[in-house]
Structures are given as structure tokens and as C-alpha cells.
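Project outcomes to date are best conveyed with an example. Our students and postdoctoral researchers have been running inverse folding experiments weekly, and each run begins with a structure described purely in C-alpha cells. The record below, which covers 395 residues, was selected by the lab manager from last quarter's runs and is presented without edits.
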């Protein structure tokens, strides 16, 4: 083979190496992945810290514990779909370390929670954490006392969580009961006043409702009606049946309170009705986390009966931990090998160009990530030594 042909082949080989180099440089960044095996456990506890069966007015705290089974990268995410008929916290909260550093964010809607990591997780091992967010079940789940399996779906993996539920509509000797539901999306509270759940005849009934600071009654939302129930008070109808306008009157309604006077006796003929007043209140202080409400009942049989209740804002939070050590595999492992010495007992190849892991100045053959050499220098070295460029893509 003559000298011109040898020079031509060498030039052709140099161009092939350069094309390989540029093709590696053109490899796109790793695409963010939705992870499928992070969640280890899901449990439900009372937000109040109490024990025993849940009733319809209890806030459930969902606690999710998770650990990474492989390396995480910025943009990776996992999702948790909530059970049907469960509503509660909506919004976002950060995943924070014990030093307050933000490692990602979780967005919670009425149907699911999606948590997305940022660059904090890259290059760390032993990454894990805990999520906590509050919710309630629809009152229709509390028709009987029983244990129910609530099904969550964590990126394709089903979790069935047992919870003990108590009848919400059962006989209650209190003349009036009150509770609220916080809605983060609309920044309102739906207040519910339930009257005569003991189903004893009450005549000449009047109700006075007063809300506490940080909220305003939306007077055009006040509704008065009843639910049909069984003999023990369990609801037979799931929606409020409105009373005729001639059966009651709303008096002195303003942003802080109102009165309702009933012109008919309640449960006069053993109807087993729960009479309810439902309305919305808008929230005026974004920093407030709980809101008070007072109600007073007066009737012929009961001179005065009052009660107070507090609605607490649903919350969500998440923490994360991880070691600042690197997994044995990192994205885009690349090495440049001298063809005359392709391996050595130590794993380092003499005269090879090693690329380096992110934020790590120790050369990592076979598993390096970010090149510390400029493109021009790498190209010249390949052309001068006839080295071979070997690479594979992430995942």
C-alpha cells in the first residue's frame, strides 16, 4: 500500500473519529421519567392525632413513605392517584431537606398528587422521604360502621389501605351539630348546621349562626332543607331536599351572621328528618389556618342550646433525605481507550482520556459523565492516537 493511500486512510479514520465525537456531543439530555417503584407504604391517620374509627367530620392525614430504588435525575416524578370520593388539600408544597433546601415540589389536585424532583437529587444515593396531606371522604362512605379498603395507585402500583369508618348519620342526642369543609381552590368554607338529628319533635325553632374572624358569609348561598334518614339517622337521600319558602324565613343576614326561623314543627309526625342549613363563607386572611363558627338553637322544648366548632385548613408537606455519594452508574458513561492497551488490572487505562462525574473531580473510567476536556483537545487527542470512542446512553 503506497504512502498516499496510507495518508488517505488515516485522514478517513480521523474523520470517522470526529464524526463519532460529534455524534456523542449531539446525544440529547436524558428525558425526565415518571418513576414506578418509589412508594413503599401509604397509611391514613387522624389529623387530630386521635384514635378510633373515623367519622364523616374527621380530617384524614395521608402519609406516604418512599425511597429511590435507583439513581434520580432532575425532572423525574412520581404520581399518587387518590381514592374516589376523597377530597381535601389542593395546591402545592415543597420537598425540603432537614436544612431547608428545596429538592422538588408536589402538586396536589382533587384526583392525584404529582411530585417532581429538581437537581438536588442528582448524584445522591439513599434518597427517600415522606409526604403528608389532608383529605376527607364523602359522607356517603359513612352510611354504616365498617372497615373499608381505600385504594391508592402510585404510578401503576395499587395500595389498599384499611380504615375503620363509623356511621355519620347515626342517632345523635345533641339538638344541633355543626361542621365545615375547607376548599383551597375557591378559598371558601362550606358550613353545615344539622338540626334535630335525635328526631324528637321541636316546635317554634329558631337558629342563630355567627362566624368568627377571617371570613365573610356569602348570603346568597344560604340553603335550608332536610335529608331523609333511617330510624337510626343514616341518610337515605344524599342531597339536600329544599324546604318550601313558606316553611321558614331567613332574617338579619349579613357577612357575619344570620337567623333562620322555622314556621313548621320539626319531626312532628316521626318523619326522621335531619334539617340542615348549608352556606358558603369566603376567607379574608390568606395567613389564617383555622376558622370559628358559633350556632344557637331555641325552641319550645329547648330554651337555648349553643355550640362552637372550628374548621382547620387542610395542609400538605413533604421531606426528603439522601447521601452526597454517587451511584455506581451515572448517565452517558464514556471512555476513550488507547487501542494498544485496552485494559489494566486497576481499571484505569494508560493514555486514556477519562471523563468526570458531575461535581466530582475524581476520574471515573467506564462511568464518567461530564467531560473536563474541551472539544478541540479531545478531537486532537483522538486524531493523534487513533483512540476509540465508546459510549452508551442513559437508561
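After processing, the design step wrote out the following sequence:
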Amino acid at each position: 500500500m503506497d504512502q498516499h493511500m496510507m495518508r488517505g486512510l488515516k485522514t478517513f479514520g480521523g474523520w470517522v473519529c470526529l464524526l463519532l465525537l460529534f455524534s456523542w456531543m449531539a446525544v440529547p439530555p436524558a428525558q425526565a421519567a415518571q418513576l414506578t417503584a418509589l412508594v413503599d407504604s401509604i397509611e391514613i391517620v387522624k389529623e387530630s392525632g386521635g384514635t378510633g374509627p373515623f367519622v364523616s367530620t374527621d380530617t384524614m392525614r395521608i402519609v406516604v413513605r418512599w425511597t429511590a430504588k435507583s439513581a434520580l435525575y432532575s425532572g423525574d416524578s412520581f404520581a399518587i392517584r387518590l381514592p374516589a370520593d376523597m377530597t381535601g388539600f389542593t395546591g402545592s408544597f415543597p420537598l425540603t431537606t432537614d436544612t431547608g433546601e428545596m429538592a422538588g415540589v408536589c402538586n396536589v389536585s382533587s384526583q392525584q398528587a404529582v411530585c417532581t424532583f429538581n437537581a438536588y437529587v442528582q448524584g445522591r444515593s439513599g434518597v427517600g422521604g415522606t409526604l403528608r396531606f389532608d383529605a376527607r371522604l364523602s359522607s356517603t362512605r359513612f352510611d354504616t360502621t365498617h372497615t373499608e379498603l381505600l385504594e391508592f395507585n402510585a404510578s401503576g402500583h395499587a395500595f389498599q389501605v384499611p380504615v375503620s369508618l363509623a356511621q355519620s348519620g347515626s342517632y345523635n342526642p345533641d339538638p344541633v351539630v355543626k361542621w365545615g369543609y375547607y376548599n383551597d381552590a375557591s378559598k371558601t368554607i362550606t358550613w353545615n348546621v344539622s338540626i334535630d338529628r335525635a328526631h324528637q319533635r321541636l316546635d317554634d325553632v329558631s337558629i342563630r349562626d355567627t362566624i368568627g374572624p377571617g371570613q365573610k358569609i356569602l348570603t346568597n348561598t344560604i340553603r335550608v332543607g332536610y335529608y331523609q334518614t333511617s330510624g337510626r339517622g343514616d341518610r337515605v337521600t344524599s342531597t339536600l331536599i329544599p324546604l318550601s319558602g313558606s316553611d321558614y324565613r331567613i332574617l338579619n343576614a349579613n357577612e357575619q351572621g344570620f337567623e333562620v326561623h322555622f314556621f313548621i314543627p320539626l319531626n312532628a309526625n316521626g318523619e326522621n328528618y335531619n334539617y340542615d342549613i348549608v352556606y358558603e363563607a369566603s376567607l379574608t386572611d390568606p395567613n389564617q389556618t383555622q376558622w370559628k363558627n358559633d350556632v344557637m338553637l331555641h325552641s319550645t322544648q329547648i330554651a337555648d342550646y349553643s355550640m362552637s366548632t372550628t374548621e382547620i385548613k387542610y395542609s400538605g408537606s413533604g421531606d426528603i433525605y439522601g447521601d452526597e455519594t454517587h451511584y455506581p452508574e451515572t448517565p452517558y458513561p464514556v471512555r476513550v481507550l488507547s487501542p494498544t492497551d485496552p485494559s489494566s488490572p486497576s481499571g484505569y487505562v494508560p493514555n486514556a482520556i477519562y471523563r468526570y462525574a458531575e461535581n466530582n473531580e475524581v476520574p471515573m473510567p467506564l462511568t464518567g459523565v461530564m467531560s473536563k476536556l474541551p472539544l478541540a483537545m479531545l478531537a486532537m487527542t483522538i486524531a493523534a492516537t487513533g483512540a476509540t470512542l465508546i459510549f452508551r446512553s442513559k437508561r
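Residues 21 and 33 are 27 Å apart (CA to CA). The two ends are 44 Å apart (CA to CA). The training component of this project remains on track.
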